[in-house]
Design brief:
single chain; about 120 residues; mainly beta; five-stranded mixed barrel; globular
């Protein structure tokens, strides 16, 4: 069995998700089972990075000394094209309903998904 594709949580510029081979359920948080039907070992797939902004929150006050250099920054909930929702960073002018595409930028020393308007 081959290794699943690496993603941003392992320093790779990619977003991965899981899809159940039994029921088709899609989930973002990786588990050893499908959260919908309980089937073991859902497939790990790479997302295309496209989505729609579901919610946006502009952070204007640093929560930690490490985030002070990034203020203001936008935290988004994005409905990804593959059918899962994820939290990520994004351009400060993004609004609910905007079509977006992922890139990756450093934030407090880690590579994180960063969404921009998809034109």
């Amino acid at each position: 069995m081959s290794e699943p594709p690496a993603d941003w949580t392992k320093g790779e510029a990619a977003i991965t998700y899981q899809a159940c081979t039994s029921c088709g359920h899609v989930q973002y948080f990786h588990r050893a089972f499908c959260a919908a039907c309980g089937e073991s070992d859902p497939r790990v797939l790479r997302a295309n990075g496209k989505g729609t902004v579901y919610a946006a929150s502009l952070v204007c006050r640093a929560a930690t000394p490490e985030t002070r250099a990034h203020v203001p920054y936008n935290i988004l909930l994005v409905d990804c094209a593959e059918g899962f929702r994820m939290m990520a960073h994004g351009e400060n002018d993004l609004a609910i309903g905007d079509s977006v595409i992922a890139s990756f930028r450093p934030f407090t020393g880690r590579l994180v998904p960063f969404f921009t308007k998809d034109t």
